[in-house]
Every structure is written in structure tokens, then in C-alpha cells.
Amino acid sequence: MKSLRWLVLGALLAATACGDYSNELLKEDLEYLYAVPARAALEVRVAELQARNIELAHESSGLEQRTDAVLGETASWYIVSLLVSLDVNLNVLGFLDLVDTITGFPPTARNSGSRQWGPWPSEESPHTDFRFIMSRDRTLGQFDFSLQTTAAAARNTPAYDEGWAGCLYGNVVPTDGSVRRGTGNLTADAATCDRFEASGASGQASIGFDTAPDEQNPQGKTSLQIHFENFLTRGMIDKDPNSRPMQADYQYLERGDLSGSFDFDTWGDLDNGENPNQLAQEHIVIKTRWDHTGAGRADSTISGGDLGALVIELHECWNPEKKRVYYQDSHNLAPTEGLPSDCALPESE
Amino acid sequence: MTTLLTLGLLWTLGAPAQGALPPGEFTPFALLVASNEGGPDFASLRYAHRDAERVRDVFHELGALADPRTQVLLGPDSDDLRQAMQAMHNDVQKAKTAGQTVLLLFYYSGHAKDGQLLLGDESLAMDEIKRWLGQSPADLRVAFVDACQAGEFTRMKGGSLAPSIVKVENTQGQIIVTSSSATEGSQESDEIGGSFFTHYLVSGLRGAADHSQDGLVSLREVYDYTYHQVVARTTGSRGGTQHPTYGYQMAGRGNIILTRLSTPSCRISFPADLEGEYLIYDQQKQVIVAELSKKSGKNSTIAVESGIYAIKKRRSTDLLLGEFVLVDGQNLELRDQDLLSVAYENDITKGLVAIRKKTRYIGYSLRFGSQAFFDKPTREELFYTVAQAGLQIEFFGVVSDWVSLTFDVLLGGGSNTTTVRLDNGFDQRVEAAFFRAEFGSGLHFHYQLGNFDLFAGPRLSFLLAVRSLGPPLELWPTQSFGTLSPGITAGCAYHLGDFDFFLESRVHYLYYNIGSNASMGYGGIYLGFSYRS
């Protein structure tokens, strides 16, 4: 009887206790929030990406215009690498800005093992509704995330709920003791993101990332493997209506001491179509490296396309101020300048 | 006729009792029984239990009665009473076997009807009590029965419905004193905080009945004092005049001394020149200890324990009132000039009705303090320690004379930082502005100690905790939690005029079930003051 009384009292107290005042809820929310990879952690930053360098990169309009740089000027291939990195950042990681905006708000729904934000309409994509879903596998210590789209016109119909498809998705295993760092992969499906907007976007960009610290980089690193498969976003089209889908592979590594490497293998029309008789795309392979001071080198190979059987090799080195200290190409497109010994780093293998 | 008998009685008792037997020669045993409840047909009594305790107190202080030989039954059923009677019988038998001279005292306060003592929903025949008394091996059996129709008890050989001078030849026998005749009701009064009979019985035992001024109160003296006071007080009352009765079956000689006024630690002496109605009120117990009709030309003494007493003398236009602290061995010789003249409306001892009016007031209090959870991580990370201010309304005298009902609100807030440790070991600090409110109600059980009021009791509060988060969760909605929380409170107040200054502490239990389940405890300590209106 006495225990029954306590039971009733306990039940009464439990029934009257209500609210959401909880550190556990905060902890759970923060864990989801901090599992999403941060754009800043995944950005490609070629040797101290600075405002002046960005400006220079935007001023450049073609590779051939920069190959005639002379000693003491900003290195041409450094600028090329910078330009490519900016394209990667803008074209792929822009989607993460949207995710950041979404997850800045509290989740719309909290379930055991998952969180959902949205659905929300978008001013920039008036025909599309977005939602962001994260789920957690405690056994694997892994979070799956997915930014999804569906047709705004289908609201209040069964098709609305059935129509959700992943636009930006992936998974991550967060790094111990840090936030928004980890190991995982991310896929941006440009076609799915814009499927209701008729923008012409297509293809996918896949990023494998590892931002976890390791023995050599206790402060953390950024290691990215990026593959563009016929990738064309609305942003790229808005910027240049003649943009072609990207087909490229990039490998980027930034170490804790700020040294790093950026290798890319892509196809491009080196004269940007200015010569109607030379519209074929050339195969461009650039291996860029820099040390902790910013001094570095680019070793490039250009082949195919309008070059036919011709293979051009170029080597350029720059100092910490990014000024050219050495240049040499296999076909004397520009005069050789400086000495190989002026380079801070040896030629890539 | 009654008046003549009374005059005769007073004249006779004016001389010292001859052959008085000092109480020390008896080994007294006492069975004191009280029942406020008399079954569904009777209204509950308010003071029967208290009356039994007062009788016990006076015999303990002045009558050589001690705990091992005293049994007080409050609200017993018939089986309880029979068992106690049997146990008492056995104890008396043992004392007799040991060669002691035994006085057996029986007291009952409660309802009675048709020859039955009413014990809640049960009853016990008065005849059974009488048989028990009659069969007891005690040398002397004395019963006081304070109940309606208690005169049924004295319908025995030697019984009388009128005051009489009992010529007790020796100390062998049985005497029964009842509060009323067999056809009368017995009344209790809020004004005196007890039944009329027991009130005057106790007053008499404390010395008001010591007509002979020998410092010994005999059974004859206390009966006659009680008889006259009860008759005088109940004449014209709504319940009708009440006549105590006195029945006996005695053999031998001797006077029966019930209390010895030199026994207690303190005495209040009323010199011969004082005259009037005096009332002695125990400030700590909040009971009337004794009432004395003081006649000029005679000394009187009231024996009391150490304590704080208010003494009041009624006059036609005002009261004389004084407060006295009596300590061990003190003999207070009262003089009217030691008392202050106060208006009747300021009479703090104007019977319990007045006292109850006085205690039926409202206290408004303002308090400041702090509230903290006992568990360190909880108070640092979840329910932060908070400074609070609060208001309380306390209703005195609504529940009972010594229990008050409180309603209060406490508010507080501030800012703090919560460190949230994520599963991956990262510690995220989150700023939080918080607010805490508590709405509570409770009972305070009061114990007066001079100007100090000690109080404690249960309480139930509704606790509301709210916090607003800072970066990186500044867009998160305000968090809140509300729950009922039982607790206890205790404190001490110091009276200063209409103000009380108090220190109070509270301890509460809280069941927390948001995100995780936990039993938590928290407490608060507060300083404040209250104004009584």
C-alpha cells in the first residue's frame, strides 16, 4: 500500500513535469549540427589564398596570357591553380552554404536517431522546396546527411512527400574532440538540385574528404579527392552561359603547416574558343605544390585537343611572394627564366 | 439550598484539613483517556485530548505521578482501552504485592451517552469501568469523568448529585467525580480552550482550590472549587447549567491530597490584598494554565513550571496585563502595579477565542535568498544557482491555532554558461540567460518560544525554469521546464511588534524527465521580514 502511494506520487510528479529544458537535447542537437562538414574545412586554398591573389586570378582570362609573365611577376601557373580552386569552391561548396543556413535554425523534428530541418521554400528556387535530414548510426559513429528537394507545386499532395530526392548527400564520421571535422564523402547532384527550375544544371560532383588530425598534422589537415562528372551548375551557367560541363579530377592536400599540393586533371579549350578553328578541348594535367612559406611550383602537361600529337610540358616556380623565379617549357612558348635551383621544391614525380 | 450548602462547604474548608494524607504516601498510577470523536451522531470535540494532557501535566508536576505509572490514551478504541485497563490492573497488583499504598487515578474526557463512553465509532459501558475500578487492588481509586451524562457514573451507593462534605474516615475506597449529572451535557469552550470541568479542575489542582492555604490541594478542595466554578460559569450558557457530581464508596478516615504546591519549580503568589479574576496563560504552549478567583484577605498560590506566562486581570473598563518569565525555583509575588493597563481589544490572552482572533491574521512577507541544487553538475550546467526575491502570504489560525497556511512566489534569474560535452569529447560552451519562478503553498507548524517562533512543515511548489540560449544556439527557442515539487521547510522568526524577522530554509525534491530521468534535490535559504495585519 505504501509502495503504491509512492508510485502514485511518482506518477503524478512525472505527469506534471513537462518542457524542453535539457542539456541532453542541446547535446544531441549540437552533435548533429557539428557533424555537418563545414565549408571552410573543405575549401581548396592554394598557398595562402589572399584577396590580392583572388583579384589577380579573376583578372586572368586565359592560360596563354599568363605564360608570358616574366621574372618578378606573379607566377602564371600559381594563378591558374588559384583560379581552378576558386571554381571548385564556388561550384561545389556553395551547396554547403545552404546547409549552414538551414542548420543555423533548430531542427523542425527530433526523432531518436535523426533530425529534420524543413521543408522550406526557397526564393532562389521558387519551384523547389528543400529539406535537410540527418540520421545517426551510433554503432558506426557515423552521420548521414541529405539535402533533398521536391516540387513546390506538389504541396499538400501525396506526390510532395513521395517526391523527395537527394541533392547534396553524404556521410561523415566526426573527428574526436573537434567540430565539423571528420572523414566522409559528399556528393552534389546538380541535376537533382535544380530539377524543377529548368536551369540546365547537370552532373555530379563527388568529394571524398578527410579533415581529421593525424600524427603529422595534429592540428588537422584537409585532404580532398574531387571528381566532377559532367558537372554543370546553375551558378556556372549564370556566370557564363557558354559554360561547359566539368569533367575533372582534383586532389588537394593542405597540411597543418600550410604546405600542400593541388593536382588536377581536366579538359579545357585553352584559347577559350576565341579561334573558331580551334574549338577542341585540350587535356591539362597540373601538379601544384607549395611549402609552408607559400613558395611553390607547378608542373604541367598539356596535350590532345587542338594540339594533336603535341605534348607540352611546362615548369614554373615562385617564391613566398608568389613571384616567378623560374620558368621553362618544352616548346619554348616563352623564354626560359631563372634556374631550376631557384625553385623551393623539386619537380614532381 | 445549593447556595447554603456552598457557603457551608466554603466555611468548612476554611480550616486546614485534619488527618491529611501527604501524597508521598501513595504510589499513584494513572490511566488518562480522551476521545474527541463520539461517532457520527456527535460533533467532534476540540479539546478532549488537550484536556487529558493538561491533567497529566498537572499531576506530573504537582502530584508525584511519573511516566512509567501513567498511561495516556488519545482517541483509543474499546480494545485499546480494555488492554490499558488490564495492564494498569496488573501494574497496580505488582505494586501492592510489593507493599506499596496505591492511588489509582482514572480520567476520561469525551462523549458519553446512555451509560456508555463513546470512543469514536465504538463504545465502552461505564459499568465496565466501574467494575474495573471496583476490582482494582489499589487502596484508593479516584476517577474524574468529563463527559455528557457522566453522572451515570455516580449512581452508586453513596452517590450524590449535589455538593457535599465528604467525611472520609480513612483512605480505603473509591471516589468518582463527574463533570455533569446523569442528565446533563458537559460543555467545552473555545474561550478557555478546554472543557469547563477540566479547566477548573486543573486550575484548582494548581492552587486555585487551596482554600486552606496549606500548600496542599485535597480532593475535597478541588471538587468544591470545580463545582462552584463550573456551575457559575455555565449558568445561563447555551448548553445549560452543568453540575459536577461526586460519588464515593469509602471506609476509614483521612483526607486525600492530590497535589502539593511546593513540588513544582515555580510558583505565582497572589498576596492577601489582591482581589479579582486572574487568568494565567502559558505563552509557549498557548493554553490557559489556571484561572483564579482571588478573594481579598487570603493568600493564593498557583504552581507552574518554568516558562513564559501572561497574567491577566479583568476589570470593568480595561485589563491589567503582564508577561513574566519564570525560571527554576522562582516564586513570583504578583502585584497589580506590575501589570500594564491595556484596552480589551489589545488583550492577547482574552481566552482562546480572542487568541484565535489574534492568531487568525495574515502575514505578508518579503524575502531574499538563494536557491541551489544539491548536485554540483546540475547546479553548474542545468539548473543554475539563482538569487531570488519573493513574496508570501501566510494565513494564521485558519487551519488551527498553531498551524498556518502559506502561499508564496519566488522569482530569480541571471546568466550562466553551460558546458555541453559531446560524445566525441568536444566541450561546447553555451551562454544562457535564465529565469526561475516558484509558486508554492505549505503548512507551517509553529512552536512559540518567547519572542521566537520556530516553524516547520510540508510544502508543494510548482517550479518553472526558463532559459534563452546564446551562440551557437541563439536561434534555438527558449527552453522551459515546469513541474510540481514536494518539499519541507523550517525556520525561525523573531517577533518585534507587528513585524517578524525570519530565516527560513527549504528542501525540495524534483523529478526531472526531459532527455533523461533523474531524481534531484534542491534547497533554498531566505532572510526576510513579514508584517502581520
Q: How would the blueprint of this fold be written?
A:
The complex is a heterodimer of chains A (349) and B (533).
Chain A: H1 2-16, E1 18-19, H2 23-33, H3 39-42, H4 51-59, H5 63-66, H6 76-103, E2 109-111, E3 114-121, E4 128-137, E5 142-151, H7 158-162, E6 165-174, E7 182-189, H8 190-193, E8 202-210, E9 222-232, H9 234-239, E10 246-254, E11 260-268, E12 282-290, E13 296-303, E14 311-318, E15 324-329
Antiparallel strand pairs in A: 2-3, 3-4, 4-5, 5-6, 6-7, 7-8, 8-9, 9-10, 10-11, 11-12, 12-13, 13-14, 14-15
Helix pairs in contact in A: 4-6
Chain B: H1 2-13, E1 20-21, E2 27-34, H2 48-62, E3 70-74, H3 78-97, E4 102-113, E5 116-119, E6 122-125, H4 126-135, E7 140-147, E8 169-178, E9 188-189, E10 194-195, H5 196-208, E11 216-218, H6 219-234, E12 245-253, E13 255-260, E14 266-270, E15 276-282, E16 287-294, E17 300-304, E18 307-314, E19 319-326, E20 331-333, E21 340-342, H7 351-359, E22 362-373, H8 376-381, E23 386-400, E24 403-421, E25 427-449, E26 452-469, E27 479-496, E28 499-512, E29 518-532
Biggest chain pair interface: A-B, 32 and 36 residues
Q: Give the biggest sheet of chain B.
A: 8 strands, mixed
Largest pleated sheet of chain A:
14 strands, antiparallel
User: Please, how many domains of chain A?
Assistant: 1
Query: What is the count of distinct domains of chain B?
Result: 3
**How many extended strands of chain A?**
15
Counting DSSP H or I runs of 4 or more residues, the number of helices of chain B is 8
Provide the structure class of chain B. alpha+beta
Radius of gyration of CA atoms of chain B, rounded to a whole number:
30 Å
The CATH architecture category of the largest domain in chain B equals 3-Layer(aba) Sandwich
Indicate the mean pLDDT of chain B. 80
| Poorly predicted spans of chain A | 49-67
CATH classification class of the largest domain in chain B: Alpha Beta
Oligomer: heterodimer
Give the mean pLDDT of chain A. Answer: 84
What is the β-strand count of chain B? 29
